[in-house]
Structure formats: structure tokens, C-alpha cells
Design brief:
Length: 390
């Protein structure tokens, strides 16, 4: 079991010799019919589906799903994020299907041990999962990634410097309510069925479970929910960017390692009107047999480096911290892809300081408008060949 000050066993960066060179391309990937770059000297093309005139949206909405909200008072609850490991040996997972948003980020294990993978961060607000399992440690990117939400994150700890870095932004994210620091509160438990024994030693790394509703009660800092809507929701179905200018996207594949390998993929189900998620080894199936699915797939391509990050955004890549995975999303920009309803659009994302929101602009210069619903956000490296197929 990892302590509150560090992770257990293997620590490091995902694919030092592999994933460090993978990232999103600024060119439309093979098999993708993304819009071509605009030629400033050429006449503007006439769209077959002209953009509807934006309307002022006065509908009360859940900030993290964009779904209509009957009573705005219901949104005055704490956002709860949980760190969930995503290695094959740590599947199946519990509870991530209840999240409003699920982030996919670098895991941190070195490729040399053969366990390079991803880590998930399901975020709960419109509803809380009863149980989330397994639970692991915090990453530096969690702070700018979750901001400007205000909430609490469940974990089993982190390196001391990561916790110190996170503490600098405690006005946005409570990080100290970890498994070992909350004994007796009921915020965490051990699932006996997931305790394992290896070479005579007992391991609890796959057995820790978090209970978001109870964890939320451990802080009274945020009684009004998120400060703002986290994603740019469309006011009507007709204004959703994929309806206005989307190209066919029944399959989306996101590589996390060099050579466009270790792909997370999403296949659109016309019957369910959702994207069904798969891992590199097969369908992403939860402990109850449910295949993970979502309404929206948002791919944010950001450079991966390994080092120690400071509040200023500067990164130290030498010394004992060089194996910590970092996503460069502070004062940065890159390519994004958005898929919904079997269609996709692409454009450029930007983000300023740690506590500023992402901004998304389509290739035609218009702002992204997303459909309400559950969203998976993938954070692959800059230059990855994100494949979108009809």
C-alpha cells in the first residue's frame, strides 16, 4: 500500500523510450476528413450547412455535463475527482461510468518494466458514484487540468513535491484528503476481493476504493460547485459544432506510445447514440460487465515531458524528479479533436495560467460548441496520429 507521501513500487514516466515522442499532428491524420486549413487569399467557401445564429442560453445547466438543471441549487455541491489506475492488471474498474468527465492521462511507470499505460481521473458532480475502484496517486497535471473547477480529489497520495505543488493551489483543489489521512471517515475502504498476495507478500494497491459522496463531506471550502462551465456547451442541438461542420467519425483511435501504438479507441453505436470505448487489449469493460461509453470524445494534444513542475510553469528535467510525467498545458496551445454523434471537428486549444479554462477554436475560426453529456478527454502527446474514420 502506498503511503501518503509517495507511490508504491515503480514510479516514472510512461514510455521514456516510446511515448515521449508520440503526440498530435497539426495535419489531418490518415483516414481523417478534417477540414483543410483556411487559405486567407481564397474566397470563403459556402457551407452546405450554414452556422445557426447563436442564441443566448439561459437554461440552467450542470457545469460539467451541460445537461439541463431543474433546480440551480442542486449544483451547489462539491466536485469530486478520483485517481484511477488503468493498467491491464488493475482492471476491471468500478464507478467510472457515473462520472461527468473522465480524463485519460499518462500513468508514470517506465516502459522498461513493461507496464506503461494510462491513468484515469473520473470527475463527479451531477451524481456521485457509490464506489470508485481502484484508487492510486496524484499527478502534477491534475491541478491545471481540473482547474478552474473547485473540488476535492481522492487518491492514495503522491510524491512530496507533487503534494507541495498541489497545495499552492488549494483554493481550487483539495488534495490532502487521501486514503491514509482519512482513516475512520468512511471516505475510503478496502475491497477484500481485490487484495492480492504475491511471493508471500500482501498488496492492497488494487483494493483501495473511494466513496465520493462521503469524501465530499470532508471539505466545506466549496459549497457552490464549479465556478463556471468547464466545457463550451451548445445552447441547442443545431449549434453543436459536429452538426454544423462535422465530418464522419464512427471510429476514433488515440495512440499513447511511439509508432502509433497502445491505442485507446471509440466506436460509435448508432443504436445507443454513444461512443463505446476500447483499451489496447479489447473492450473497456467494468466489473459489472458494462462496456464504458460516452457522449463526447475530446482529444487534447499536449507535449509530454518528464520532470518537476513549478507554479511558474517552469519544468526541471534533471535530478531525482526526471521520471515524473508532465503534460504541458500551462500557457500552451495545441491541436484538439472533438467527436459526437458519429461526426468530428478539429481545431486549436489554448490555456493560460493554471487556474484558467481551456479555450477551443475550430479550424474555421469559430468557437467549439459541444453537445451536453458525458465526456472522455484524452491527453495524448503532441504529434500523435489520431485516427478518425468514417
Amino acid at each position: 500500500m502506498e503511503s501518503v507521501s509517495r507511490r508504491t513500487a515503480m514510479i516514472g514516466a510512461i514510455g521514456v523510450a516510446g511515448a515521449a515522442v508520440v503526440g498530435c499532428s497539426t495535419q489531418p491524420p490518415a483516414g481523417t476528413s478534417a477540414p483543410a486549413p483556411t487559405n486567407p487569399g481564397a474566397p470563403e467557401a459556402t457551407s452546405a450547412s450554414p452556422s445557426p445564429t447563436p442564441t443566448q442560453d439561459t437554461t440552467p445547466r450542470w457545469p460539467l455535463t451541460g445537461e439541463p438543471l431543474d433546480d440551480p441549487e442542486d449544483a451547489k455541491r462539491v466536485v469530486v475527482a478520483v485517481k484511477v489506475p488503468d493498467n491491464k492488471g488493475e482492471h476491471p474498474q468500478i464507478g467510472i461510468d457515473k462520472a461527468d468527465i473522465v480524463y485519460v492521462q499518462m500513468d508514470g511507470y517506465p516502459a522498461a518494466v513493461g507496464q506503461s499505460s494510462t491513468r484515469l481521473v473520473p470527475v463527479y458532480h451531477s451524481k456521485y458514484a457509490d464506489t470508485v475502484n481502484p484508487v492510486r496517486s496524484i499527478r502534477p497535471v491534475d491541478v491545471p487540468m481540473l482547474s478552474p473547477m473547485t473540488g476535492i480529489i481522492g487518491s492514495t497520495g503522491a510524491y512530496p513535491w507533487v503534494l507541495r505543488y498541489a497545495a499552492e493551489f488549494e483554493d481550487y483543489l483539495v488534495t490532502e484528503k487521501q486514503y491514509m489521512t482519512t482513516k475512520g471517515t468512511g471516505a475510503y475502504s478496502i475491497l477484500s476481493s481485490r487484495v492480492r498476495t504475491l511471493n508471500g507478500q500482501t498488496y492492497y494497491d488494487r483494493a483501495v476504493a473511494c466513496h465520493p459522496a462521503t469524501l465530499a463531506k470532508l471539505t466545506d471550502k466549496f459549497s457552490k460547485g464549479p465556478q463556471q462551465h468547464y466545457l463550451p456547451w451548445a445552447a441547442s442541438d443545431a449549434e453543436v459544432s459536429t452538426e454544423v461542420a462535422g465530418e464522419p467519425a464512427n471510429f476514433v483511435s488515440v495512440p499513447w506510445k511511439s509508432g502509433d501504438s497502445y491505442n485507446m479507441s471509440y466506436s460509435y453505436s448508432k443504436k445507443k447514440k454513444r461512443y463505446l470505448r476500447s483499451m489496447p487489449w479489447g473492450k473497456h469493460v467494468l466489473a459489472d460487465g458494462t462496456q464504458v461509453s460516452c457522449d463526447n470524445v475530446l482529444v487534447i494534444c499536449a507535449k509530454h515531458v518528464f520532470g518537476k513542475i513549478y507554479a511558474s510553469g517552469k519544468i526541471k528535467t534533471s535530478g531525482p524528479y526526471h521520471m515524473e510525467p508532465i503534460h504541458q498545458i500551462i500557457n500552451a496551445e495545441g491541436v484538439f479533436y472533438y467527436a459526437h454523434g458519429g461526426k468530428a471537428v478539429t481545431g486549436t486549444w489554448t490555456k493560460g495560467e493554471v487556474n484558467e479554462a481551456f479555450q477551443f477554436t475550430l479550424d474555421d475560426g469559430t468557437p467549439l460548441k459541444m453537445a451536453p453529456g458525458q465526456t472522455f478527454i484524452e491527453l495524448p502527446n503532441k504529434g500523435a496520429n489520431v485516427t478518425i474514420k468514417e
